[in-house]
Design brief:
Helix content: 10-25%
Distance between the termini: 67 Å
Shape: globular
Radius of gyration: 24 Å
Largest sheet: 7 strands, mixed
Low-confidence stretches: 1-9
Mean pLDDT: 93
Number of helices: 10
Structural class: alpha+beta
Length: 480
C-alpha cells in the first residue's frame, strides 16, 4: 500500500484507524445490494477544543468528540444517505443497507475492491494545536489580551478566543478508492471595545489555518491584539458614510469575502446544473473584466480552506474558474460532474459524517494584476476605500448582494482621508466583476478566519484578493 496523506499521531487505537479495506468492501457491497450507479462511505473521528478569555480571565472552555460513518448510494439523480454514530459493524451495515434502499435502482451492482490511494500533504503539521499543553495556548491568549489593553487607555474590553479541531477521515468508494487524511485547524480571534466619552467602537482581528503553534512564530499574538485595538480606535471618530454610486477600492486580503459570496457561490456546479445561477450555461463567455482571473485553490500550504483530499476521496487541486474575464468552468463534486458530463474538480465537501457533500469552495482568490496599489488610490478623485468586512448577504440566482464594512475610509483627491462608519456595498456580483478597472500587484490571502455556510452546513474556507478598483458600485450610507 502507498503512504497515507499525513502522519499526525493524534488518534489512538480504535475509531477510523481501525477500519480495514475489507470492511469497506463488505459495506459497499451491502450499499449497492439493490442497485445504484455509485456508492461511498465517509468515516470521521473529530476532536475539538475552545477557549474563551474575557476581562482578564478564562470564561469558557469547551471540548468535543464526534465519531461516525455516513453511507451514500447514487442512482441517476436519486441519492440515498444514512449514517451511524459509531463504527460497530451492526450500525454501519444497517446504514449502508438503508442508503441503498432509499436510492434503490433495482439489481445488485458490484463495487470495485478498494485500494489505498496516496494524496498530497498541504498541511504537514507535526503537532496540531489541540495536542499541545493547555498552558501553552493560554499563554498565547494572555499575550494578545495584554497587548490589546496596553495599546491605548481607551480600550475597555478585550475578548480573545481560540477554537481548534482535528479531523481524521477515511473515504471508501465503489470505484475502488480508499483514502485517509488528518486535518488540523485552528482560529485565533481578538475583539476589542474602546470608549472615549460617549463614543464607543469595536474592532477585531484574527488568523489561523491548518497549522500548528509555529503559526505564531511569524504572527505573534501581540500583533493580533494590537490590530484589533487599532481598528477600534481608528473608527472612533468615523463620520457617516456618503451614499450613492461611487468608485470603490477594495483593499487586499479580506475583500475576498465579497468575491466568495457574490461570485464564488454562483460558480458552484449544483446551482448551474439546476439553472439557478447567473452563470448557468455561460462557459466560454465573457463574464468579467479582462483584468480578472479567479481560481479556487485547495493546494495553498496551511491555508484554512486547503484540503489534501475532498470529502468524496479526491485530491484537492487548483481550478481556474474565470481567466482574463472568460468563464472557464464550475466547481464540481462527483454528482454534478457526472450529471453535467465533465470531470470533478475535487470540491465535494461536507460539514460532517451526518450529511451529504455538495460542491463547495476551498480557497477562492482573484489573482494579482499589474497596477501599483498606490497608483490605484491616486487615480480616485472621490470614493471609498474598503478594508475589512463583517459579512453580507447574496442572492445566488441573480448575484445581488449587500455587504457591511467594519473598516473603511473616504478617498479624496487621490488620498485616503476620513474613517467612515455605516458603510454598506450594494450591487450584483457578476456586474461588479465587469466594473473592475484596475487590479493591484499586491495579492494577499485573508488570514484564516472565514467559515462558509450552505444548505445548513458550515465548512472552513479561505479568500483573497489584491487591491481592486471598481469603477462604480452603490454605497449605502448617508445621502451625499
Amino acid at each position: 500500500m502507498s503512504d497515507p496523506c499525513t502522519r499526525v499521531p493524534a488518534f489512538g487505537p480504535g475509531g477510523v484507524s481501525e477500519v480495514s479495506p475489507q470492511q469497506c468492501d463488505h459495506l459497499l457491497t451491502e450499499a449497492l445490494g439493490r442497485g445504484g450507479d455509485y456508492a461511498d462511505l465517509f468515516f470521521e473521528h473529530s476532536r475539538s477544543s475552545s477557549f474563551s478569555f474575557e476581562d482578564g480571565r478564562v470564561k469558557n472552555v469547551g471540548r468535543g468528540v464526534s465519531l461516525g460513518m455516513g453511507a451514500r448510494v447514487v442512482d441517476g439523480e436519486a441519492t440515498g444517505y444514512a449514517y451511524a454514530q459509531d463504527l460497530e459493524s451492526g450500525p454501519m451495515g444497517e446504514a449502508a443497507r438503508t442508503a441503498g434502499s432509499i436510492a434503490a435502482g433495482g439489481g445488485a451492482t458490484r463495487p470495485v475492491p478498494v485500494t489505498e490511494v496516496s494524496c498530497p500533504s498541504f498541511y504537514p503539521v507535526e503537532t496540531p494545536t489541540l495536542m499541545t499543553p493547555d498552558a501553552d495556548r493560554l499563554a498565547l491568549i494572555r499575550r494578545a489580551d495584554e497587548a490589546a489593553r496596553a495599546y491605548d487607555p481607551a480600550v475597555k474590553k478585550v475578548q480573545v478566543s481560540l477554537g481548534e479541531g482535528l479531523r481524521q477521515v477515511l473515504v471508501a468508494t465503489s470505484d475502488g478508492r480508499w483514502v485517509t487524511d488528518e486535518q488540523p485547524l485552528f482560529r485565533f480571534f481578538v475583539r476589542v471595545v474602546a470608549e472615549k466619552g460617549d463614543k464607543r467602537q469595536s474592532g477585531s482581528s484574527g488568523g489561523g489555518g491548518r497549522q500548528g503553534l509555529a503559526y505564531f512564530d511569524g504572527q505573534r499574538p501581540e500583533e493580533i491584539g494590537r490590530e484589533a485595538a487599532r481598528v477600534a480606535l481608528a473608527m472612533m471618530d468615523a463620520q457617516e458614510a456618503p451614499a450613492g454610486k461611487m468608485t470603490v477600492v477594495l483593499g487586499p486580503g479580506d475583500s475576498g469575502i465579497l468575491l466568495h459570496e457574490a461570485v464564488g457561490h454562483g460558480l458552484e456546479a449544483d446551482f448551474n446544473r439546476k439553472g439557478t445561477s447567473n452563470y448557468s450555461g455561460r462557459v466560454g463567455e465573457v463574464v468579467a473584466s479582462n483584468l480578472c482571473t479567479v481560481v479556487d485553490d485547495a493546494t495553498q500550504p496551511g491555508a484554512r480552506g486547503s484540503i489534501n483530499v475532498d470529502d468524496e476521496g479526491l485530491r484537492g487541486r487548483r481550478t481556474v474558474l474565470i481567466e482574463k474575464g472568460i468563464l472557464k468552468g464550475y466547481m464540481h463534486d462527483r454528482l454534478s460532474a457526472r450529471l453535467m458530463g465533465t470531470e470533478t474538480t475535487g470540491n465535494g465537501r461536507r460539514e460532517d459524517f451526518t450529511v451529504t457533500p455538495y460542491p463547495r469552495m476551498t480557497n477562492t482568490f482573484l489573482l494579482a494584476g499589474e497596477s501599483d496599489p498606490e497608483e490605484i488610490i491616486r487615480s480616485v478623485n472621490r470614493g471609498i476605500y474598503a478594508c475589512h468586512f463583517s459579512g453580507g448577504q447574496v442572492n445566488i440566482s441573480n448575484g445581488d448582494f449587500v455587504f457591511s464594512l467594519t473598516e473603511s475610509y473616504l478617498i479624496e483627491d487621490g488620498k485616503i482621508t476620513a474613517p467612515l462608519r455605516g458603510v454598506n456595498l450594494i450591487g450584483n456580483g457578476p456586474d461588479v466583476l465587469t466594473q473592475v478597472s484596475m487590479v493591484g500587484t499586491d495579492f494577499a490571502a485573508s488570514d484564516g478566519i472565514w467559515t462558509c455556510g450552505k444548505e445548513g452546513q458550515s465548512v472552513p474556507v479561505g479568500v483573497g484578493t489584491p487591491t481592486i478598483k471598481l469603477a462604480g458600485i452603490t454605497v449605502g450610507g448617508t445621502q451625499a
